[in-house]
Each structure stands twice: as structure tokens, then as C-alpha cells.
Amino acid sequence: MYHLPIPTEMHGTQEVRIALRAPTFLPYQHFAGNTDARPLSVMVQRISIR
After folding, report:
1. Residue 49: alpha-carbon gap to chain centroid
2. Would you state the pLDDT for residue 32?
3. With b meaning 16 or more CB within 10 Å and e meaning fewer, what string describes 10-27?
4. Taking the mean position of all CA atoms in its chain, how far away is CA 37?
5. CB 18 within 8 A of CB 6
6. Closest Cα partner for 26 from 16, 12, 40?
7. Between 12 and 50, residue with greater pLDDT
8. What is the DSSP letter of 7?
9. What is the enclosing helix (H) or strand (E) of 28?
10. For residue 37, what are the contacts with CB-CB under 8 A and spacing of at least 6?
11. For residue 28, what are the contacts with CB-CB under 8 A and spacing of at least 6?
12. Which band of pLDDT confidence, cut at 50, 70 and 90, is reported for residue 18?
């Protein structure tokens, strides 16, 4: 779990963008019998704003 503080100057705005960058991999190159050729990276399960 990561907690990302929103900069003070963005408080009250209608839109906040968070960019996640991570290396990708092709499942078929890592798992025998897998034919999935989609480039995959991080999995986001939940995002919440408090």
C-alpha cells in the first residue's frame, strides 16, 4: 500500500492525475503454455481518496 499526498495547491481541484510507470513484461515469454502477448505491468486493485 502506498500513500501519496496531494500537493496543497491541488486541494479542491476537480481532477487529479497520478501516473504510474513500471517495466512491462509479456506473459507468454515467462510462463510455459501461456499465449497472452499483452504487455503487462503493475496491477492496481484499489484507489481511494480521503
Report:
1. 15
2. 96
3. eeeeeeeeeeeeeeeeee
4. 19
5. no
6. 40
7. 12
8. P
9. helix 27-30
10. 26, 27, 28
11. 34, 35, 36, 37
12. confident
